[in-house]
């Protein structure tokens, strides 16, 4: 079966993620870390999201006959892996940012710019998946995802703009 090596690779990647998460301080943050479309989990620790990813990987292994569900789950698992990898890589950047700073506007600006960067990466990732999507159902879902992400990006940029307008003149 050609699917076995792919599933083994996914399991290896998830095992590496598990190691990375175990090595980091995984303290709770104030709000969920990911979009509700990506993870159903409302947890605030990376380990919470890793559990959901592992559950989806198990479901992917079990969904051998339903091709559409299998493809949807595969896309979701890949998106979740990519999101957790990005989050693990950005943990070193987050720790200092979560501490209070002297200028609250500067920390808000950095927070919004971080959101903007992650949203742009998510849009690019969904557009790449869309280019490779084979079924109409998956294409429609990815198009909706891209539209939602563009709306979030617009709100983020609007918040950045309002923050710039509220800055005192120097």
TrEMBL record:
Source species: Pantoea rodasii
Compositional bias annotation for Basic and acidic residues: 95-111
Gene3D superfamilies registered for this protein in UniProt: 1.20.1270.340
Protein name: Prephenate dehydrogenase
UniProt xrefs under Pfam families: PriC
InterPro entries reported for this sequence: PriC, PriC_sf
Residue ranges of the region described as Disordered: 89-111
Phylogenetic placement of the source organism: Bacteria, Pseudomonadati, Pseudomonadota, Gammaproteobacteria, Enterobacterales
Domain of life: Bacteria
């Amino acid at each position: 079966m050609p699917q076995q090596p792919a599933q083994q690779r996914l399991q290896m990647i998830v095992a590496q993620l598990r190691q990375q998460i175990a090595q980091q301080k995984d303290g709770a943050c104030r709000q969920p870390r990911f979009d509700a479309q990506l993870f159903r989990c409302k947890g605030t620790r990376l380990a919470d999201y890793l559990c959901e990813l592992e559950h989806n990987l198990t479901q992917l292994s079990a969904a051998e006959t339903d091709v559409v569900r299998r493809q949807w789950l595969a896309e979701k698992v890949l998106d979740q892996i990519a999101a957790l990898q990005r989050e693990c890589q950005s943990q070193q950047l987050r720790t200092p940012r979560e501490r209070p700073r002297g200028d609250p506007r500067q920390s808000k600006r950095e927070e919004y710019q971080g959101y903007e960067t992650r949203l742009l990466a998510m849009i690019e990732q969904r557009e790449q998946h869309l280019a490779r999507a084979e079924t109409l159902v998956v294409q429609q879902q990815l198009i909706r995802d891209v539209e939602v992400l563009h709306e979030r990006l617009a709100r983020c940029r609007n918040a950045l703009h309002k923050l710039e307008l509220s800055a005192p003149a120097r």
